[in-house]
Amino acid sequence: MSTGREDPKIVRFGVGGEFRRIRSFLESLPAAPGVRVGPGDDAAVLDGGIVLSTDMAVEGVHFRLDWVTPGEVGYRACAAALSDLAGMAARPLGVLVSLAVPDPGGQSSLPIMSGVRELLDRLKVPLLGGDLTRSPGPVVLDVVVVGQADHPLLRRGARPGDELWVTGRLGAAAAAVGLWERGIEPPPGLREPFVRPTPRLAEARYLVSALGATSGMDLSDGLAGDGSHLAAASDVDLVLDTWRIPLHPEATSKGPEIALHGGEDFELLVTLPPDPPKAEVENFRKRFDLSLTRIGSVGPGLGLRIRDTPKEEPRTPERGGWDHFNAAEEEEQG
User: Fold this and answer.
1) For residue range 189-199, what is the model confidence (pLDDT) as tens digits?
2) Full-prediction pTM beyond 0.85?
3) Mean pLDDT, the chain, whole residue set
4) Do 54 and 146 meet the contact criterion of CB atoms below 8 Å apart?
5) Which residues touch 114 (CB under 8 Å, ≥6 apart)?
6) Is the pLDDT of residue 292 over 80?
7) Do domains 52-148 and 163-333 have the same CATH topology?
8) Hey, where are the domains in the chain?
9) Does residue 246 surpass a pLDDT of 60?
10) What top-level class would CATH report for the domain 163-333?
11) Residue of 196, 170, 190, 184 whose CA lies nearest to 116
12) What single-letter DSSP state applies at residue 330?
């Protein structure tokens, strides 16, 4: 939890080609007045506790219309953006949606926006505005989210001795994508977490207020990738116990690798002080009907390491989480 002014010029990311590019661009920018938390976290925080983030969804990269319906595209894109507010333990104030579609009349925007409205109505979050334009290529959505948090949950803040925890069960969305890529329609239990993820907004605020979360972020690029970002931001060593990772019951055959490298879970990865009150942990589970699982520990050092048994020495993962540019480079080489 952050209670003071952070230096917005400090940018610490974990491994990955996407983040090397972001880092090289941001390092030359001057600090901006009125900014409490700048680039390098799930969202920016301005004076007054205003929290801002933006998230894109591009046809052929984040979704395919032969896999999902237009309404599901809108729902998923909006949920992914709001998940960044959850990663900051912010209360949502509204969203702005910009949409580019290829048809001349723009009629394809209507079912996409119906999915956006479905989620916003469910969460009671207002649509504040946006933009609509024609695209010569794929469907593109950009969702800007606005929230408020007096004491935002940041990626920096984990301390040696803290414990690493995760909400929910992981791997369903990545397992669904794997089936689609093989030409197989996923069963509903795997498909639903991909097309209708739930941003853990109230859950994040509870983790801060009741359990004293010291750092955290939303889990979108896999435990290996996002864990490395959390470790880098907090300047600590995270040791992740793979046998503790809670997997979705229909994704267990894939083993912990799918949670380490798959992504698209949109759960919360947080650090809590050691030995959090059992009553509060159980109350979280009952209140949100959601699992909360300890998966590792925080120590001195820098980086993310994993181990498969309690007696094994921790090791650095062979690869990180999902990375747009690394994936593109692998496709070109393949």
Assistant:
1) 999 999 999 99
2) yes
3) 91
4) no
5) 70, 71, 74
6) yes
7) no
8) 52-148, 163-333
9) yes
10) alpha beta
11) 196
12) H
The backbone torsions φ and ψ at residue 85, rounded to the nearest 5 degrees and listed phi first, read -65, -40
CA separation for the pair 320, 260 (Å, rounded): 8
Parallel, antiparallel, or unpaired for β 303-307 and 237-241?
Answer: parallel
List helix spans (H) across the chain.
17-26, 70-87, 109-123, 172-181, 188-195, 201-209, 223-234, 257-261, 278-288, 324-333
How many other CB atoms are there within 10 angstroms of residue 141's CB atom? 28
* Nearest alpha carbon to residue 149 among 71, 201, 95: 201
Partner residues linked to 290 by β-bridges: none
SS3 of residue 241 by DSSP: strand
Domain 52-148 has CATH 3.20.20.150: no
pLDDT tens profile 109-128 = 999 999 999 999 999 999 99
The string of pLDDT tens digits covering residues 274-285 is 999 999 999 999
pLDDT at 39: 86
pLDDT at 7 over 60: no
Say if CB 32 and CB 2 are below 8 A apart: no
| DSSP annotation string for 193-226 | HHHS----HHHHHHHHHTT---EEEEE-S-HHHH
| 67: number of Cβ within 10 Å | 18
Which amino acid type is present at position 121?
A: D
**pLDDT at site 5:** 42
